[in-house]
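Running co-folding for 1-O-phosphono-alpha-D-glucopyranose.
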Amino acid sequence: MSQQPILSVVLPVAGLGTRFLPATKAIPKEMLPVLDKPLIQLAVEEAAKAGITQVVLVTSASKRAIEDHFDVNFELEATLEARNKQSMLEAVRTTLPNGMTLAVVRQPKALGLGHAVLCAAPVVGDQPFAVMLPDDFIDDPQGSCLADMVALYNQQSAFSLAVEEVPREKTDKYGVVSLNADGRITAMVEKPKPEVAPSTLAVVGRYVLPAETFAALREVKAGAGGEIQLTDGIASLLSTQVFRPHRFKGIRYDCGSKLGYLQANTALGLRDQEVGVAFAKWLSSVI
Ligand code: G1P
């Protein structure tokens, strides 16, 4: 039997974004721009490079702006057309890359990341799928972290989690994995205290997962922080499925934190064709 392709990505975007208040009072945190694109669009573009065709947003009541961002804005398009602003028109028409469809499901209660992913089950169906956390922006200008993970699945039938080394004092901010001698993930724990963390290899927001993840999540009880954790669902599959760590190319910016967000803007600003040179000059003059 040939293996099922990875066609859907689940983007959990129901969280409140309290670390950026008051900026995120009326705007979802995923709509904060890195230079000129919102975080959510950067994630969707990375998914498009991985051959993903269906984006499944798991949202909550205050997140309408995300759906609107990927929808047609007739008024804006008509105005840009009348003014003959072709490149701007193209930019607003392709927020959702060609060939992709968008589905939206609601997470009625904030019960945790695992619960959010489970809310997407009826739309994803009985298929392997990807999950991306848009707060984690992985800057790989030539490539795509998720595309590399989908290639790993296509070539080796391995499911995978993107990982990176973190300082031991930060293990309690992440899911942390243990590996065996073959490099397979054998255990995974959510937000362990530094003194009990099985390693310093932390999961960042990219996952390629089997369809069985949904059944596993239905069985998971509240874990770290009293929430239904994606980590616990995956952990229960590790004895029956092959999961590999993916040490991604490029740099990951934690755009859920002010420092990471500033770093991401700086990195893209310095590379920007229009303002990069002037920005670099200004930056070196102020430091
Ligand atoms: C989530 C996951 C965690 C992962 C992290 C990556 O945590 O639960 O396992 O390491 O994302 O950013 P959160 O940052 O939502 O608390």
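Result summary
The pocket of 1-O-phosphono-alpha-D-glucopyranose is lined by residues 113, 133, 136, 174-175, 190, 202-205, 229-231 (CB under 6 Å).
The first strand starts at residue 8 and ends at 12.
Job closed.
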